Amino acid sequence: MELGFFGTLLWPIKWVIEAILVGFHSLLTAAGLESEAGVTWVLSIVGLVIVIRALLIPVFVRQIKSQRKMLEISPELKKIQDKYRGKKDQFSREAMSRETMNLYKKHGTNPLSSCLPLLLQMPIFFGLFSVLNDAYAGRPSVGLLTPALSAEFGSASLFGVAPLGLTMATSDGNVAVIVIAIILVILMTGSQFLTQLQIMAKNQSPEMKNSPMYRQQKILLYVLPIVFVFSGAFFPLGVMFYWFVSNIWTMVQQFIVIRNMPTPGSEAALAREARLAKKRQKKGLPDPDAAAPGAVAVEEPKQTTQRQQPVSKNRAKKQTKKGGR
Amino acid sequence: MSDPAVVRVIRAIGLIPRNIIVAVLHVYRAVISPLYGDVCRYYPSCSAYGLRSVQEHGVLKGSWLTARRLVRCHPWAVGGVDDPPERHHSPYRRTRFGFIVLDRKA
């Protein structure tokens, strides 16, 4: 069998994907689902998403932790932002990015998630694409997907009418495929939109809302639907479904995080405070902030660090007469 | 140099592969990069690093440098400023759009 460069690269990934799919498939058939039913295979794809996204949870947790640490360095970050405020030329922006990065490094924290996880998800996506295509075309699989299973997977269909291996482009007039692909595109765009909006509207501190990163995210909101429409035409339904379930996972994950560990200073953080306060009231517990009454409310008299100049007795008298000190 | 014209042509042909990759990277940075937003833990970002190293060092060495950088850009990396190795006496010139051409004096 001719493999080629990409085939060789994808081989181990395809093997793992097949193993996970077959694993879930046998679990599901053991649970009483029909082996060749579309539902069984669709749920196997859901299983694949669960395994892969669960493996990525530590990466996600790590990212959140470092985002929390951002609060500690926010004064310094603000200083850099003020320094370059209003300077929009390329060199200032570059210098600003460099200083920001150095600041992150100095404090051993970094709010960005890094490139490698993204890069690792791409082959999984293409691996599934390839496994599905092979199964649909009746080509031999690379691993645990036996010819019989492969044939089942290839002909498995969503709701019994739309084969998973078909794309909008290869649907050949199969209306069900086109309709389902369009619905998936709409759902994907919707879920992505919600996730992004959720982050942007609720989980960002005011400083973050002024950063160029925020503007980029905003642009993203409008680029995504175009990408989804395009992919809807060329990716098989099975792959689209994988992508959709993965999006849903992101959305739920994001929702949990925003609810329970919001970015300090953001709207979501205030909402959480309010929720917790209400809970305490219900249970009749004292407010921890109220334990030291006046701690926040009473403002300390401002202390000036400037030294009072000593004055001669005569002068001091004059000043008091004038109504000074 | 006995025949600068021939040498120039050969060198110009030698620049084609890296300019193709430069074009591909431009498209990637314009179309696909925005999909992810800012993710890179380094400055310049991985794709900018890749672009720079291919421009400076050609496809082979540039790819190698970029691959190593991508592996470095993992969730446990500290990040920071990380520029590609510079080439001090490059015989080429970078155009406004980032393509690499022969310098007039070369």
UniProtKB/TrEMBL annotation, chain A:
Q: Which residues form the Membrane insertase YidC/Oxa/ALB C-terminal domain?
A: 41-258
Stretches of Basic residues bias are at: 314-325
A Pfam family cross-referenced in the UniProt record is 60KD_IMP
Q: Name one GO cellular component term.
A: plasma membrane
Q: Where is this protein found?
A: Cell membrane; Membrane
What UniProt keywords are attached to this protein's entry?
A: Cell membrane, Chaperone, Membrane, Protein transport, Transmembrane, Transmembrane helix, Transport
Q: What is its main location?
A: membrane
InterPro entries noted in UniProt: YidC/ALB3/OXA1/COX18 (IPR001708), YidC/Oxa/ALB_C (IPR028055), YidC_ALB_C (IPR047196)
Query: Is Oxidoreductase one of the keywords UniProt gives this record?
Result: no
Q: Which residues cross the membrane?
A: 12-33, 39-61, 111-132, 175-199, 219-245
Q: Does the keyword Cell cycle apply?
A: no
Supply one GO BP term: protein insertion into membrane
Listed Polar residues bias regions: 303-312
Self-association or partners: how does it assemble? Answer: Interacts with the Sec translocase complex via SecD. Specifically interacts with transmembrane segments of nascent integral membrane proteins during membrane integration.
UniProt family annotation = Belongs to the OXA1/ALB3/YidC family. Type 1 subfamily.
Function (record text): Required for the insertion and/or proper folding and/or complex formation of integral membrane proteins into the membrane. Involved in integration of membrane proteins that insert both dependently and independently of the Sec translocase complex, as well as at least some lipoproteins. Aids folding of multispanning membrane proteins.
What is the designated name of this protein?
Membrane protein insertase YidC
- In which organism is this protein found? Microcella putealis
UniProtKB/TrEMBL annotation, chain B:
Q: Tell me what organism the protein belongs to.
A: Microcella putealis
Q: According to its UniProt record, where is this protein located?
A: Cell membrane
**Which superkingdom does the taxonomy of this entry point to?**
Bacteria
Keyword Membrane included in the entry's annotation: yes
A Gene Ontology cellular-component term: plasma membrane
Q: What this chain does, per the record?
A: Could be involved in insertion of integral membrane proteins into the membrane.
State the protein's name: Putative membrane protein insertion efficiency factor
- Membrane topology, from the record: Peripheral membrane protein
Keywords attached to this Swiss-Prot or TrEMBL record, sorted alphabetically, are:
Cell membrane, Membrane
Provide the family line.
Belongs to the UPF0161 family.
